[in-house]
Specification:
Keywords: Membrane, Transmembrane, Transmembrane helix
Structural class: alpha+beta
Strand content: 5-15%
Number of strands: 15
Region (Disordered): 1-171, 244-272
Transmembrane segments: 337-358, 455-480, 500-520, 609-628, 634-653, 701-723, 759-782
Helix content: 25-40%
InterPro entries: DUF3433 (IPR021840)
Biased composition (Low complexity): 91-101
Length: 881
């Protein structure tokens, strides 16, 4: 430093500065810049010793930017200038910059007695010091006056009664004036005092309104709490990031069905999920190793609700689930092994009985005998005649109904069995699958395409047991000798045709095999806690995950568009809730467009008119076959013809019956203000014999009469099985009376297999049933053929698309384990009504679906409610300019 000129030494940042704490005034030690930065060399700055200057002047010397105090004693001019020693190279000059006067230093009171007044040295409340005491007195008196603004809120300084003014310590060389300091206490005004007068009694209407407001506030708080729990199950999902490892270039293939995550990562993720017992989320495509962003630290699993994903919306994220050791396995009794075992044993027993009767008939035929013998049918007792003519077909019809009960349940619950598999199922195999509204004889083909074998075995067994076996049975029992060889006085015999009988036995054995394999298939676990009845059953499963996000924009979309949007993901039923599963980059399911008509095929007029016409033609054909000469030869040649035609009517009616059952809850919702019981209403799995009674009790009369029609079709099949005679012989006066006309021949009434009473009872039943079916069918197409839905229903995806933005979803939080009865009672306690139409969703936009009342508008087919008004968030956009 010796070689550096003295002007350059002053203020050098390299100079070491160490303050002398003992020489710094006590008021400036704490937080003082002098303490923090140190002192300059002695030859560069004035001495810290007091030379008749105040503390503020000393601060002004140390900090030139500080303004001078107007109340401090002015030092001489020489001591207040900032000068520097002249350089040996440059002559000294008087600097133009002069240090301004510093403000008066604060006074620090040594009094420690509690003073309730604010700190006078708080910069927010302190008043600036004045030069003149007279001016201060005048202004102080003005500030202490009461005004309309403050209303007595300003008060003078509060003195301490215990301490006198003489005890206060004063700063030396500082002029202090014992004047009170005014304070503005207007901001501390309390609540105005209430007047002590008689209170006005609130009216009853005001009390009711206040209680109503309080209840609405409680409901709003509860709604917000429940809404926050939608998708709460995703908090247990952890995201496992995988660093990108470039793979060697491979030949491009067009294989479908590959996952968005490669096979190795998929297997590792599934193993990790099973090992940890947690749900893992894996992004479909990660192109960088993002672990470097964390300083090379190990990447820990993170919650998907608090962490960003590779795809912003999570639409390409795959989810892997551990195996549930306590997976529930609820199934209805008609799908349990006791019921299916019973059906299998009955099939084998009837096949054995059929073969036994065939063998017995063949042995008796060798002896010119039969199972029954008579000269004319009137000789048989009522029990014998009924056992011969109606009992076999009736037994097989009832057996077919028992299979229908199981078949309905298997078709209804098969999507849940697919979802409960280890890796779930695609939407085409589960959410978009509909067997109930599909043509029953085509169901096995659809099930075979998706390899859902339980449906194949169940539907085949039902079709054979309820349709084919009664037809074959009606042809296996015959009366001998043949009609042309019969004579009036000779014996007639009832025998079993071996060929038709063996066909019946083979069909029954086939049914038993299907039942045995079905029992093996029913070892699977359904993943259900209870019966998922109706809309509520599906809605309760969709509140713990983000599965509803996949249905965005599908409010009024037809089924093929829903399938197209959902085909890129697998879905799974885990812990009684529906979840998104593995992401599929290239979906293997082909999308077939079936049109946009929201009605099932059997409820459209193009199918209804031919169906009603067929019933009418069948009703007309029966009298033709019975009373027209030569026409009855057709029934004699093909004895099962009428039974086969009646079976076709039964199958078509059953399809229409399923459609009516499925549509009933939605039809009630479309009429607005539906009761809560509507959400759990489900007729699809109801016993056909109990269905009419249940529907009548619920006042759903159309469903009841259609259910009665299904029972009548079964009776129709039994009655027409005996129509193979010449009806003219049963007209009074045209039959042969043995006493009046001793003529013998094959054209008399007594040579047929009908009695006068049985013929007319059967004929009247058949015609009456057909007329009833025509009337009910006309009523069905009159009440249900119009379009009151945006799309066809019958699938879980269709229901989820209706409710994905519904506010009523908060009602189903934590209800996935409720039984149907518990869910019904729970909804009825809510006291709400529901409707199908346009409503304001949870996202603030208009949606079409099912929600609690009130809704914006009912649904009208072909009318888009969103185009009839403009929302607040759409104002100013170019679409609504």
């Amino acid at each position: 430093m010796e070689g550096v000129p003295s002007p350059l030494r002053i203020g050098s940042p390299a100079a070491t500065r160490k303050p002398s704490v003992e020489q710094v005034p006590e008021a400036l030690r704490v937080g003082s810049p002098v303490v923090e930065h140190g002192n300059p060399p002695l030859q560069s700055r004035p001495s810290l010793a007091r030379r008749g200057t105040s503390g503020s002047d000393r601060l002004s010397q140390l900090f030139p930017s500080r303004p001078a105090s107007v109340a401090s004693i002015s030092p001489d001019l020489a001591s207040s200038r900032r000068t520097s020693y002249p350089s040996p190279l440059t002559p000294a000059a008087d600097p133009a910059y002069r240090i301004p006067r510093a403000p008066a230093p604060p006074s620090f009171s040594e009094n420690t007695v509690y003073d309730p007044s604010p700190d006078p040295f708080d910069q927010r409340h302190a008043q600036p010091a004045l030069q003149s005491s007279g001016t201060k007195r005048l202004l102080d008196r003005l500030t202490s006056l009461r005004s309309a603004r403050t209303r007595g809120g300003e008060y003078n300084k509060l003195e301490n009664a215990e301490e006198g003014r003489a005890g206060r310590a004063r700063l030396r060389d500082v002029e202090e004036v014992d004047e009170p300091v005014g304070y503005d206490l207007s901001g501390y005004d309390g609540l105005p005092m209430k007047k002590f007068e008689a209170k006005k009694v609130a009216s009853t209407a005001d009390s009711i309104q206040a209680e109503r407001d309080l209840n609405e506030a409680g409901y709003a708080a509860e709604y917000e709490r429940l809404e926050a729990q939608l998708g709460a199950g995703m908090t247990s999902v952890v995201e496992v990031p995988f660093s990108h490892q470039p793979q060697p270039e491979q030949k491009i293939s067009h294989r479908r069905g590959l996952s968005g995550v490669d096979a190795t990562a998929r297997e590792d993720a599934q193993k990790e999920a099973e090992k940890t017992g947690e749900i893992l989320a894996v992004a479909a495509e990660i192109t960088v190793d993002i672990s470097e962003s964390f300083g090379g630290a190990d990447f820990e699993t993170r919650s998907v609700l608090t962490t960003g994903q590779a795809d912003s919306d999570g639409s390409k994220t795959s989810y892997y689930f551990p195996e549930d050791p306590d997976m529930p396995s609820w199934r209805p009794f008609s799908m349990g092994w006791p019921w299916i075992t019973m059906l299998t044993v009955i099939a084998l027993a009837m096949a054995s009985i059929q073969e036994f009767l065939c063998q017995l008939s063949m042995r008796r035929a060798e002896k010119q005998d039969g199972l029954l013998r008579f000269t004319k049918p009137g000789e048989l007792s009522t029990i014998q005649y009924f056992t011969w003519k109606y009992a076999p077909v009736l037994v097989f019809v009832i057996y077919g109904i028992l299979w229908q009960i199981s078949d309905f349940e298997v078709k209804r619950l098969e999507p849940f069995y697919q979802l409960s598999k280890k890796t779930g199922a695609t939407a085409g195999e589960s959410l978009n699958m509909d067997y109930l509204t599909f043509m029953s004889w085509l169901v096995p083909l659809r099930a075979l395409r998706h390899k859902q074998y339980a449906v194949i075995y169940s539907s085949l067994a039902t079709l054979v047991a309820s349709s084919l076996v009664p037809v074959l049975q009606s042809a296996s029992v015959n009366m001998y000798p043949p009609k042309k060889e019969r004579e009036e006085g000779e014996l007639k015999f009832i025998r079993i045709d071996p060929n038709w009988s063996r066909a019946v036995s083979a069909c029954l054995v086939f049914v038993a095999i299907c039942g045995s394999v079905l029992m093996y298939e029913m070892r699977r676990k359904s993943g259900l806690q209870s019966d998922p009845k109706g809309i509520a059953g599906v809605a309760a499963m969709a509140t713990r995950s983000h599965i509803l996000a996949d249905f965005h924009g599908l409010d009024t979309a037809p089924l093929h568009k829903i399938h197209k949007q959902l085909r890129h993901r697998r879905y799974i039923l885990h812990k009684s809730s529906l979840w998104q599963g593995e992401y599929i980059r290239n979906g293997a399911d082909r999308v077939r467009e079936h049109g946009t008509d929201p009605r099932p095929l059997m409820l459209r007029l193009r199918a209804g008119v031919p169906f009603i016409s067929f019933i009418i033609l069948f009703a007309i054909s029966i009298p033709i076959f019975m009373f027209i000469d030569g026409a009855n030869t057709v029934t004699e040649t093909i004895p099962f013809l009428l039974t086969a035609l009646a079976t076709i009517i039964k199958l078509l009616w059953g399809t229409m019956n399923c459609d009516i059952r499925m549509l009933e809850p939605f039809f009630i919702l479309s009429n607005r203000r539906a009761p809560p019981r509507t959400l759990t209403l489900d007729y699809t799995g109801t016993n056909p014999a109990w269905l009419p009674i249940k529907a009548f009790l619920n006042k759903h009369y159309l469903v009841a009469v259609v259910g009665i029609g299904s029972i009548l079709t079964e009776i129709l099949t039994v009655c027409v099985s005996s129509f193979s005679v010449d009806g003219k012989k049963f007209i009074p006066g045209h039959g042969h009376d043995e006493e009046a006309n001793p003529r013998k021949g094959s054209d008399t009434r007594y040579n047929s297999d009908e009695t006068f009473r049985s013929f007319w009872i059967s004929f009247a039943l058949v015609i009456g049933i057909l007329l009833c079916l025509v009337s009910v069918a006309c009523l069905v197409y009159l009440r249900r053929s119009h379009k009151f839905m945006p799309r066809q229903i019958g699938t879980m995806a269709s229901v989820l698309a209706f409710i994905h933005q519904s506010k009523m979803l908060v009602t189903f939080v934590d209800t996935e384990k409720f039984t149907s009865a518990q869910m019904t009672r729970y909804l009825e306690r809510q006291g709400k009504t529901y409707a199908l139409g346009w409503f304001s969703g949870r996202d603030g936009d208009d949606h079409c679906g099912i929600d609690e009342e009130p809704i914006l508008a009912p649904y009208r087919y072909g009318v888009d409610w969103t185009k009839t008004r403009v929302l607040g968030n759409q104002i100013g956009t170019w679409e609504h300019y």
